[in-house]
Amino acid sequence: MNTIAALQGLVTAASLDGGPTAAELDAIEREMPVILADVELLDAQIMTLDRTPTQLDERRIRRARRKVMAARRDLTNRTAPVQAGGAA
User: Fold this and answer.
1) What angle do helix axes 22-47 and 55-79 make, rounded to 10 degrees?
2) In this structure, what DSSP letter does residue 8 have?
3) Closest CA to 78 of 20, 32, 42, 21
4) Cα atoms in the 13 Å half-sphere on the side-chain side of 74
5) What is the pTM for the complete model shown?
6) DSSP one-letter code for 79
7) Cα 67–Cα 48–Cα 40 angle in degrees, nearest 5
């Protein structure tokens, strides 16, 4: 039986040596509220997969959706460029 081997070395071998850069870690830190809100929404949705959602479940999902929207809005407002001269 013939073995299959790569004819070339890894193209991205150099980039795999290090971990995330400081800029990437800062970006993750900025997005952490959105990530946590998304996880909370997924948890609320997963709880209702195998049963009919109760009124409490529906409220929990609505609250989690509002939290996701607020976290995304806050992230967008923090990262949006500021326009000089009152331009909208």
Assistant:
1) 160
2) S
3) 32
4) 13
5) 0.68
6) H
7) 25
Residues 6+ away with beta carbon under 8 Å from 64: 37, 40, 41, 43, 44
CB 26 within 8 A of CB 79: no
User: One digit per residue, pLDDT tens: the chain, 88 residues?
Assistant: 676 766 666 555 555 568 889 999 999 999 999 999 999 999 999 999 999 999 999 999 999 999 999 999 999 998 777 676 666 5
Query: Looking at this protein, which amino acid is placed at residue 9?
Result: G
Distance of CA 37 to the CA centre of its chain: 9
Q: Which of 33, 24, 27, 25 is nearest to 74 (CA)?
A: 33
Q: At 34, which helix (H) or strand (E)?
A: helix 22-47
Positive or negative: CA dihedral 53, 54, 60, 66: positive
